[in-house]
Amino acid sequence: ALYPRCLEHKLESCSLYCLTCSKLICADCLESQHSEHKYKSANSQLAAKKQELLGDIEKITNLGKNLHGVE
Fold first, then answer.
1. Nearest to 34 by CA among 17, 49, 15, 12
2. Binning pLDDT at 50, 70 and 90, where does residue 70 land?
3. CB–CB of 39/18 below 8 Å?
4. For the segment 25-68, what is each residue's pLDDT rounded down to a tens digit?
5. With a threshold of 0.85, does the pTM exceed it?
6. pLDDT at 1
7. CB of 14 within 8 A of CB of 38?
8. Measuring CA to CA, which residue among 16, 7, 14 is closest to residue 42?
9. What single string gives the DSSP state of each residue in 1-58?
């Protein structure tokens, strides 16, 4: 997977997601500024957000169908 480069550590890729700060971080960021924070892999966070969005789309679609039935 291609990860964005860290703005602070230019040679590092942001392959982690800091749950505390809600942002992508690199391994160097984790060691320095985010060492006490909760984190997970960027891929894992992406998959979780994708499922959340798909659920939201389904809710909106169902709401739209229900609204069309009410007149």
1. 17
2. low
3. yes
4. 999 999 999 999 999 999 999 999 999 999 999 999 999 888 87
5. no
6. 62
7. no
8. 16
9. ---PBPSSSTT-B--EEETTTTEEE-HHHHHHTSTTS-EEEHHHHHHHHHHHHHHHHH
At residue 34, what is the residue type? H
CA-CA distance, 48 to 39, in Å (whole number)? Answer: 13
Tokens of 21: 């700060």
**Which residues, in sequence order, are bridge partners of residue 11?**
none
d(CA 46, CA 12): 19
Which residues contact residue 34 at a Cβ distance below 8 angstroms, ignoring those fewer than 6 apart?
A: 18, 20, 21, 25
Strand partners, 39: 18
